[in-house]
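We were asked to recover a plausible sequence for a given structure. The inputs and outputs are reproduced exactly as logged, with field labels preserved.

PROBLEM: sequence recovery
POSITIONS: 566
GIVEN STRUCTURE:
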């Protein structure tokens, strides 16, 4: 039996921990195994993840684990992907992945080089991602809604050797590549020279490239509200452990059907709607483009998913549909959300209309898999739940000491799938320390171990000498449909003192401004009441959906000529 088969058999039908115990040596994601061959360009630093050690084979290609089901005759024909009436089985996906890996090598791609994926969510995207890993290259899923300047930055920052693009993104791809030698462009579909056409005639790559567990497998680029995207480097070991939340919270297994609205270039979906689904032997329903609520309802009716993933804003869009349509979700027992705060009003409306619950989870691109979640049998409204298995969490104050229950502080985590680090060694040194990662998020923990997100550590302000949390001000106007969305920002007044401004997107109440002013006066202490309240049609967001608070701040300053009244 070859090495790939041994690894496959060690993982299939086993839990995460048991599978790793079946491996050989102890993984320590540190510089000692971060090879020069696959080291990112320009001296990226590596995190010291020795505290997150897992027993596993030193030689490990994640694809051998993720597609292990294809080696089981009983599961080879089971659906891995459903899309628009078409089914891709585990066997078909494994074969397409092996042919894509050969096709990529035939372009001159060598192990360790980066491959950008500017593609919609299709079986070919999945095969391109897995094929790159199988060939020993490093996949970089790209947000298809990023502006050209950000995609160009990523291509240059990663020194990508190849950019695979769907035909709909050809103009963007050519603009990015320009006259430079790198990245080379490869159309995903359409022509005789496309990846799809090359894969049809390519031989199958039977043996995956012999990567080490700590070798980079994929990069994720974070997208903050300001500045350039930041490269986060994940290993083959991390990719092989996908599906943590699916296993531990949703109980996913062969026969489970997973539906998500988030795109696969987000860590939330890359794990929970793609790699994690494969690791569990389940089936994922993919939407090639960005789905509308009506499309999701139709897919729920057709595929009867057992697990549904989406962001809070999409729950709001679903709740705008007639109640009789939403009842299709009554047969979906597990609904999970994350990425932003779930307003209490949305949760209440969903429970009343659909009759099921929404489980709030918490994670980040740096940990790939989710870090915390509410559980079906153990949950608390307003919290993000409890740490998942193998995750350690601590909340520290400004002096680095752990806080008492109920006291706020910055969350640090140790995680089985913690990134190797950032490409930027200085950023790595600031955030990754001795196996721990500083999330930069403010949290509290109650006596029963539930964690509650309080915002970013840089989003707690002193106004009039007292601490103010913007999320509490936003929550005040989000109840009972008064506002659909709200964002609170701090703006300096004419004398340089920080004051609060609240921007609201109208809900069912009209006019919204008098009602919002009255609600703030009623529900908030005087020092937390916003000085300015403005109505906006929509909140400005980044391509990844984060609210651009600096845009709102600049909008108010522009409105007042930069001289807001004290």
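RECOVERED SEQUENCE:
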């Amino acid at each position: 039996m070859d090495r790939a088969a041994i690894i496959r058999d060690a993982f299939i039908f086993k839990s995460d921990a048991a599978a790793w115990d079946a491996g050989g040596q102890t993984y320590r994601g540190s510089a000692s195994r971060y090879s020069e061959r696959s080291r990112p360009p320009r001296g990226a630093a590596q995190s010291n993840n020795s505290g997150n050690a897992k027993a596993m084979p030193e030689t490990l290609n994640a694809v051998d684990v993720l597609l292990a089901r294809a080696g089981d005759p009983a599961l080879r024909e089971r659906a891995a992907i459903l899309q628009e009436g078409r089914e891709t089985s585990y066997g078909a996906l494994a074969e397409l992945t092996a042919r894509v890996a050969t096709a990529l090598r035939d372009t001159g791609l060598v192990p360790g080089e980066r491959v950008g994926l500017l593609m919609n969510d299709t079986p070919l995207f999945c095969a391109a991602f897995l094929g790159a890993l199988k060939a020993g290259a490093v996949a970089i899923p790209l947000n298809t809604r990023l502006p050209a300047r950000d995609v160009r930055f990523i291509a240059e920052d990663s020194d990508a050797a190849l950019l695979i693009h769907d035909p709909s993104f050809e103009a963007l791809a050519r603009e990015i590549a320009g006259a430079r030698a790198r990245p080379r462009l490869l159309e995903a579909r359409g022509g005789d020279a496309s990846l799809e056409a090359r894969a049809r005639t390519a031989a199958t790559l039977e043996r995956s490239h012999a990567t080490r567990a700590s070798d980079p497998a994929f990069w994720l680029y974070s997208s903050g509200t300001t500045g350039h995207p930041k490269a986060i480097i994940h290993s083959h070991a991390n990719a092989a452990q996908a599906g943590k939340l699916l296993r531990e919270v949703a109980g996913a297994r062969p026969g489970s059907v997973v539906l998500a609205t988030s795109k696969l270039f987000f860590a939330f979906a890359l794990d929970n709607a793609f790699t994690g689904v494969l690791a569990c032997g389940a089936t994922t329903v993919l939407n090639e483009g960005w789905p509308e609520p009506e499309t999701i309802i139709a897919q729920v009716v057709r595929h009867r998913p057992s697990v549904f993933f989406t962001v809070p804003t999409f729950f709001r869009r679903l709740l705008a549909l007639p109640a009789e349509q939403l009842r299709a979700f009554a047969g979906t027992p597990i609904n999970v959300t994350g990425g932003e705060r779930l307003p209490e009003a949305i949760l209440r409306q969903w429970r009343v209309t659909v009759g099921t619950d929404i489980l709030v989870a918490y994670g980040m691109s740096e940990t790939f898999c989710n870090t915390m979640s509410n559980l079906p049998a153990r949950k608390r409204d307003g919290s993000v739940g409890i740490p998942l298995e193998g995750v350690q969490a601590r909340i520290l104050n400004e002096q680095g000491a752990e806080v008492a229950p109920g006291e706020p502080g910055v969350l640090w985590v140790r995680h089985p799938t913690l990134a190797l680090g950032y490409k930027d060694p200085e950023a790595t040194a600031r955030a990754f320390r001795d196996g721990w990662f500083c999330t930069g998020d403010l949290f509290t923990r109650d006596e029963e171990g539930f964690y509650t997100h309080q915002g970013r550590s840089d989003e707690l302000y002193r106004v009039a000498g007292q601490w103010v949390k913007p999320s509490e001000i936003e929550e005040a106007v989000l109840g009972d449909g008064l506002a659909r969305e709200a964002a609170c920002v701090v703006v300096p007044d004419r004398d340089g003192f920080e004051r609060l401004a609240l921007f609201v997107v109208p809900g069912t109440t009209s006019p919204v401004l008098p009602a919002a002013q009255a609600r703030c006066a009623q529900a908030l202490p005087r020092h937390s009441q916003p000085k300015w309240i403005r109505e906006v049609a929509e909140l400005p967001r980044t391509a990844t959906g984060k609210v651009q608070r600096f845009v709102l701040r600049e909008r108010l300053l522009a409105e007042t000529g930069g001289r807001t009244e004290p």
